[in-house]
Amino acid sequence: MHERAFEHLRTMIVFGKLEPGAVLVESDLCEMLDVSRTPLREALKLLAAQGLVELRQNRSARIAPLRIDAICDLFETMSSIERLTLEFAAKRIAVEELTELRRLQDQIERFGEAGDLGGYFKTNRQILQSLLLPRVTHAA
Predict the structure, then answer these.
(1) Measured between alpha carbons, how far is 61 from 64 in angstroms, rounded to an integer?
(2) What is the structure's pLDDT at 98?
(3) For 81-108, what is the mean pLDDT?
(4) Better pLDDT: 123 or 129
(5) Which positions ≥6 away from 17 have C-beta within 8 Å?
(6) pLDDT of 138 higher than 70
(7) Taking 70 as the threshold, does the pLDDT of residue 31 lie above it?
(8) How far, in Å, are 36, 100, 120 from residue 138 at the CA level?
């Protein structure tokens, strides 16, 4: 139960449905997630370990504030990893995979222009999975 609550809350935080600094009311979250306090508290501990939630002694938990320097560092790291991934894949990509990759690129650009972060990140994940998973499977 706590893993389901964790995933649901994490998704809400990452996609901005729970805003930075927002106080988390346990009774409301238990009702929304249909869990008791114990799995909710376990989920909050996991979120705190990832830096997404702040657990405050004798007070309600809250969504961690955005830290611009940490976000910039994260995007710099992720872009470096993605660049290396794409360089690796570009040397091995088949024509059929390239056609699919172009379709996904058009899709991600549309999501970006529309400001649809959910669609953008979902498509970004599809791009990376399409480049990595077939190669990992064949290498094994």
Answers:
(1) 9
(2) 85
(3) 85
(4) 123
(5) 11
(6) no
(7) yes
(8) 44, 19, 28
Cβ atoms 101, 130 nearer than 8 A: yes
Residues in the chain: 140
Half-sphere exposure of residue 108: CA atoms within 13 angstroms, side-chain side: 15
Query: Which residue type does 108 have?
Result: I
Cβ proximity of 1 and 39 under 8 Å:
yes
User: Which pair of tokens denotes residue 138?
Assistant: 């064949």
Tokens of 21: 């600094």
* pLDDT above 70 for 34: yes
Give the Cα separation of 97 and 127 in Å (integer).
10
d(CA 83, CA 77): 10
Tokens read off for 35: 């869990």
Q: What integer best gives the mean pLDDT of the chain? A: 85
Beta strands in 29-140 (DSSP E): 53-54, 62-63
Q: Single out the residue of 66, 38, 40, 41 nearest to residue 51, CA to CA.
A: 66
Residue with token string 């088949």: 94
